[in-house]
Amino acid sequence: MDPISNRETFRAAITGGRFVYGAELVSTRGIPAPGEQHKLIDLGKALAQDPRIGWLSITDNPGGNPMLPPDWIAGMLAGQSVPVAIHLTCKDLNRNGLESAAWRYALEGFDNLLALTGDYPITGYGGLARPVFDLDSVSLIAMLKAMNDGLEVQRPGGKTEKFPQTKFFTGCAVSPFKRQERELMPQYFKLARKIHCGAEWVISQLGYDMRKFYEIKLFMQWAQVQAPVIGNVYVLNKTVAGLFNKNKIPGCVVSDKLFALIEKYAAGPDKGRSFFNELAAKQLAVFKGLGFAGGYLGGLGKAESFGKIIELAQSYGENDWKEFAKEIQYSKPDEFYLFEADPATGLGDVTQLNREYRKALENPAPLGYRLTRKIHEKFFVAGEGFYPAMQKIYTQLEKNGDNLASRALHSIERVSKEMAFGCKDCGDCSLPDTAYLCPRKACSKTGRNGPCGGSAEGRCELDDKDCLWARAYDRLKAYGEAEHMLDGPAVFYNASLEGTSAWANTYRNRDHHAKKEK
Questions:
Q1: Are 402 and 304 within one domain?
Q2: pLDDT in tens, 484-518
Q3: Is the pTM of this model over 0.85?
Q4: Range of 177's domain?
Q5: Is residue 360 assigned to a domain?
Q6: Do residues 195 and 172 touch, judged by C-beta distance below 8 A?
């Protein structure tokens, strides 16, 4: 079944070299009263009739709330002459549930997926829901790529079965709206990792600084990765702007400078509506001028409201966007940019890296980290130092069935790693991947492939600790290794190793490090 009928596919739309407008449909909770049509479906159908709308994008339990599933909404819009992109997040489903959902989407003809880690749940029936985060956006993208290549699985009897290839056109998100270098650069490195793992298009998270938006394209040019980039535009109002300003909606940024302006216009006769619409239209115009593949418009509840903003964006002169780009730079104080500003445009210059970026950190990495690196080099680098000897010891212990000695070594490992790193005894250790910061302990989403987009001011989305990846960046930059902190394939945690010796699993080639070596 193909829900796309009279209009070009989403892939063709955003890779065809012209600017395409997209509209966001935010899933809702509950069902309509008997005999009533769901308002969201009415909105989707009305948007589908607007020839300027190139695709519709449907959210997946946004804000960590339980909502109607996006494929139900997409199914209700099947037959409309507009492509649909479905968000798929990792917070509510483990890898089996995500794979199952992906098979369902493939059978339903919904091949355009935006792979996201997802917001941490904030509510749930009877109390706060426990999040899953078995996969993250990077590993989800890698799994969808494997399905596109023809997923191979091993049956209980040992026979390998290869499934028919899917046709997912997988996208990813990136947030350039981070004030600190230690928080921004891991976002960029993770974007490159997502593209290497199979992401084919990119959408920005929300902010109001065109210089930062443009940095996405500059970073991709610098890092030599390619994919069409879509700019994200949310039509503000004072209430939502206040939530963004106070970091109440993860990954959405309104600076104090912009919020002061919003309060001024919101006090006017139209409550700031004209200002908000013009700001959104100007952003769309800048995206088009900068060569973005499209603009993604959200925050509206009526089809005519989408149309008015697009009409306004199209009414501007051919070069007006250049002034808008200079005007819409509502940054935070001391905002870090990877590229120096071009005085002529007010945007970044890809030939001029930020001078501060190339500077080494003034303070060395913590003593504990430095010692841990030394120990790792001696004992856990394959073929080096004591690694061959330890490999022989663990091999012999297992061969002899010496459970007493194995349990004693595991106890030493568990106690020492718990004291040093807060280890949770997962058995498939990622400490070498994360600058020796345990993802189970130091990351609320247990991320092993890079930071989520929800942090603010270097703090976790939950604001209870510093972001693991910002801390890891500091440690690795002290050694000149930060640019490679997220190199390599996606990490998949193997839950079958839970509660077993990570040392034994490393020396016996059972953990994800062995798979990475292959």
A1: no
A2: 999 999 999 999 999 999 999 999 999 999 876 54
A3: yes
A4: 10-353
A5: no
A6: yes
